[in-house]
Amino acid sequence: MNPLVSPAAAPLLGVNIDHVATLRNARGGGFPDPVRAAQQAVEAGADIITFHLREDRRHIRDADVERLKAVITAPLNFESALAPEMLDIICRVRPQMVCLVPERRQEVTTEGGLDVAGQFDRVRSACARLAGCGCRVSLFIEPSAQQIEASARAGAPCIELHTGAYANAFDAGDDSARQREFDRIVAGLKLGRSLGLQTNAGHGLSLQSTPAIAVLPEVSELHIGHALIGHAVFVGLTQSVRDFQATIASAVATARGR
Ligand code: PXP
User: Fold this and answer.
1) What is the pTM assigned to this prediction?
2) Is the beta carbon of 113 within 6 A of some atom in ligand 1?
3) d(CA 103, ligand 1 centre) in Å
4) What pLDDT score does 8 carry?
5) Which residues contact residue 76 at a Cβ distance below 8 angstroms, ignoring those fewer than 6 apart?
6) Mind listing the domains of the chain with CATH numbers?
7) Is ligand 1 within 6 A of the CB of residue 142?
8) Is residue 203 lining ligand 1, measured as CB closer than 6 Å?
């Protein structure tokens, strides 16, 4: 069994700060600073700071990554495309965690999961290289048996299941699609665990759609960005992190009778 797996605990919260950088870049200056946001999120209770250095640098930039590494005390989760340039940067920066994601220039956000089965040799060699650099590697994949089994064979200790379809169905009030996507996530988590993987979840989750995922005992980490930064517009970043942590904690306590 993977030693990272801790089934009884509430999932850790990874706060994705990309959208603070998006806001900063809208005006070309240095405000608001995503590194300051990361510091504040950690002080408010974020367990992990997540960011995605995209190949087009549309939000997080190289200098942000260097500063995050220098000042943030919580583990950093570096989301990255499977690109040689990115792997070089990661092996120089050495974040504690790396999450390999698919990336297309035209997309608004990460659409779909990484096709591990379809580019198996590339993924396996990236997993080996990143592990050799001391990073815990996670693969961001659809909750499909084919991708989960390929991830385990590729040597990743961890997967993050894409919750976007579930979250979209939840937000649209489409109960049958929500249930179908939820069932896929549950089955995927169980399969991942049975293969000895740490199983995380993320994408598109809001305060409302998070609890049902947070209570699943196989979920070790939740990675949340857009809705948490959006909520911060109204309540402030400190309160937003606290609201998400409280929502997760209370859902887990209720589900586990504590
Ligand atoms: N997990 C992964 C792998 C992602 O790529 C993203 C988006 O960057 C997230 C989680 C967070 O998604 P959202 O911003 O929709 O909460």
Assistant:
1) 0.95
2) no
3) 12
4) 58
5) 48, 49, 50, 51, 68, 69, 95, 96, 97
6) 12-255 (3.20.20.70)
7) no
8) yes
